[in-house]
Every structure is written in C-alpha cells, then in structure tokens.
Amino acid sequence: MKKVAVFGSTGSIGQSTLEVIRNNPNQYQVYALAAFKSVALMAQQCIEFNPQYALLVDAQAAAELKQSLQNIPSCTTQVLVGVRELNGLAKADYDILVAAIVGAAGLQSTLAAAQASKTILLANKESLVMSGQIFIDEVKKHGAKLLPVDSEHNAIFQSLPSEYQKDYLNQDICDFGVKSIILTGSGGPFLNEPLASLSSKTPAQAVAHPNWSMGQKISVDSATMMNKGLELIEACWLFGVQPDFIEVLIHPQSVIHSMVRYLDGSVLAQLGAPDMKTPIANCLAFPQRIVSGSEHYDFITGSSFDFKAPDFERFPNLYLAKQAFKLGQESTTVLSAANEVHVEAFLKEQISFTDIAKFNQIILESYQPAAVDDIDSILAIDQQARRLAEQKLQEA
Ligand code: NAD
Ligand code: MG
Predict the structure, then answer these.
(1) Atom 43 in ligand 1: which residue has the minimum CA distance?
(2) Does residue 228's CB lie within 6 angstroms of at least one atom of ligand 1?
(3) Average pLDDT over residues 97-110
(4) 172-273+301-395 maps to which CATH number?
C-alpha cells in the first residue's frame, strides 16, 4: 500500500488523481490533501478518503474546513493551514507526492519533497520552468524520483527505452540513439481562427479547449501556446536537451501525446484518449500498469490525424519561451511570472487575448536578471517580475 499526498487536490489534476486512486483502492492510500481554499470540495474529499492531513493555504477556509469536519465522526483528518505547514507536509511520512498546485505557488513544496527524497509525480510544470537547474540538482542530490505527469512528457518518457527510464536524469539521451523529441500540441481553440479576430477573443472562448478539460490558467496557456512554450522548457530540463533538439508539432486531435525520433528512422509514440488519468496512472504504478478509469481510444470511430507546423505569428509566446530558455532559468522565471499576471488580467477582462503575449514580451525584454543559483533568489526574481508586470499594466 503506497501512501500518496495530493497537493492541488481540488484542481483538475488533483481530482483526476483521486479518481485513479478510487479505481485502485488496494494499492494506494491518500495520506494528505492540500489546496488553496475550496472548503466544500476539500471536505467532500476528506470524508471520502479520510487522509491523515488536509491543508488549506487560506486561513479562513482552513478554519471552515475544520468546523465542517468536526461533525463527521468517521473522518479523523487533521486540518493544517498556510504555506509553512504546506512545505512541512511535503516532508512528512508518505511515499508519493502528486505535485498539482498551479503556478509558482507549487514550487517550494515540490522542492521540499525533493529534499525529502520522495517520489514526485510532477504536474506543476512551472516549478521546472522557474528553477530547472536547481530543481533537477536537488532531485539528484537527495535521490528523489521524478516522474512526468504532463501528458507530453509522460508520452516522451514512455517512448524512451527502459534502460534510459531507470535513471534518466543521469543519462545522456543521445547514448540511446535518439535523434529528436517531437512535442505535440493541439494548437488550442483558435488554431484556425483568422489572425485579426484573436484580439477580440473572450476568456470563455479561450478556456473552451477542444480536447482537454483543464484548469483556467493552463487552458488560456493552451490557447496562446504558452503552455507548449512552458512544456518545451520543461522537456529541456527533464531530458537534458536544448530547444533545438525538440520539434514542436501541432496535432489538433490530441491523440498522439508526443513522440521520439530515433537515428535509424523509427519514430515511437504514445497514444490514447486525451485524459490525464492515463499519465497519472502511468506514473503512480511505474514501471507497472494499472487501470486508470480513462476511456480506451477507438481508432475506428476516432477522427483521422492531422499535423501542422507551429506559426510564431499566431503563437508568439512559443517563440518567447525559446528565447527565455536561451537566456537562462532567471529569464524563464520572469516569463512564467509575467505570463501568470497577464493571464489573470485577461481572465478579469483587463487586457485582450493578444495583449498576453505582447506584455509578456515587454517584461522579458525589459527585465533580464543576473544569474543566480539559489531558490530564494529565484523567488525574488519571480516577485520582481510580477511587480513590473503589474506596473506596466497600470501604465498601459
Ligand atoms: P487547477 O486550477 O484546476 O487546480 C489548481 C490547484 O492548485 C487547486 O487545487 C488549487 O486549490 C491549488 N492552488 C492554487 N493556488 C494555490 C496556492 N497559492 N497554494 C496552494 N494551492 C494552490 O489547475 P490544474 O489544471 O489541475 O493544473 C495544476 C498543475 O498541473 C498546473 O501546473 C498545470 O500546468 C499542470 N498540468 C495540468 C494539466 C491538466 O490537464 N489540467 C495537464 C498537465 C499539467
Ligand atoms: Mg501538457
């Protein structure tokens, strides 16, 4: 029986994780749940899974959760609160962390789990984007295990040889005959819309992803393809390669989740219905296989597959991500932080859809911090980039 901590349990990935655990009750036990402030959903999850700990970062929400669980005698969950206790909980007595908090807020607890030598199932791509080198170094130093939940990275991982998978952070992918990585992306809801219409797209249109059901932030990132940019950076750190080693390919049906091209001309891919329960189950059971609860893909009734090259005019964020990676982890932190501020402003209808990339570029070009090698400095850069982004928004 493996003890699992789910950080970000009330979100899209968190709920999918609990669904996989629900389908495998004899193998996994929920040890801890953590989220920001969704009291009702967290209470429901506590009543169902009776974890040892449940944490809400928001103090008011944590107090309400405690109150509502008091009347449930079968639920013995202890309620924790705040960021400090979250980072402490990351080091507690469990086996597997599902790191599914969204954005920079997920960085410190994921890093704490690495320092406690845990097995980390990484959904929170922002932590690798912000602190790639530091994060990978900590994972290696403490003998933690890192498995990619992000569907593309999970697909790439599955398409690589088992000899490589066993110790992939310490291996050179080129020693295994790999020529390149093909990172696929759907192109989001506006792939075929006239360019001139993009500036008037609403938040509701942007979050309506054609294939995947996801949280709001990542859905907007999919529409701007910033998500693919963040994933390109994530793939560079995970697989120890440069951006030029990665071919980004638009595949609107989201059935091929990514591929690996080998020297001999072979291309290996991982396919399946677009459902995050599959990569989550793959990571939970690795190297075994378990039932995930996701639909099995039907090739006869499914649509045919299309492919297209990405276009930087439509998706300038993809270009910015490549530029930022070349500048270093400080600049990818700046871009990621600025993007969080601008996505939030777009969701609040303060800026237009095309303004997201426009303002991201302004911040990336106007703030190029010096190289740093510790997490506090990264977090300071993150804060400074946010302040600058907010200031520029006010001036605009
Ligand atoms: P979501 O918005 O649905 O859920 C986010 C979760 O994080 C919630 O539980 C929320 O309570 C928690 N949270 C938010 N702010 C927090 C804070 N300050 N402190 C603690 N907890 C906080 O997001 P999601 O779509 O589930 O995505 C989660 C992460 O997984 C993101 O990094 C995303 O990029 C990544 N990811 C998601 C998908 C997907 O299909 N949804 C796929 C690949 C990767
Ligand atoms: Mg993805």
Answers:
(1) 150
(2) no
(3) 95
(4) 1.10.1740.10
Q: Hey, where are the domains in the chain?
A: 2-148, 172-273+301-395
Burial of residue 37 (CB within 10 Å: 0-12, 13-18, 19+) is: middle
Task: Write the CA distances from 338 to 166, 298, 341, integer angstroms.
Answer: 36, 40, 5
CA of 150 to the centre of ligand 2 (A): 5
- 154 touches ligand 1 (CB under 6 Å): no
CATH code of domain 2-148: 3.40.50.720
Q: Are strands 96-99 and 246-250 parallel, antiparallel or unpaired?
A: unpaired
How remote is the CA of residue 157 from the centroid of ligand 1, in Å?
A: 22
∠270-272-275 over CA atoms, to 5°? 120
Higher pLDDT, 375 or 209: 375
Q: In whole angstroms, what is the distance from residue 142 CA to residue 156 CA?
A: 24
At residue 225 the predicted structure's pLDDT band, cuts being 50, 70 and 90, is very high
Q: How much is the average pLDDT of 134-149? A: 97
Give yes or no for residue 124 CB within 6 A of ligand 1.
yes
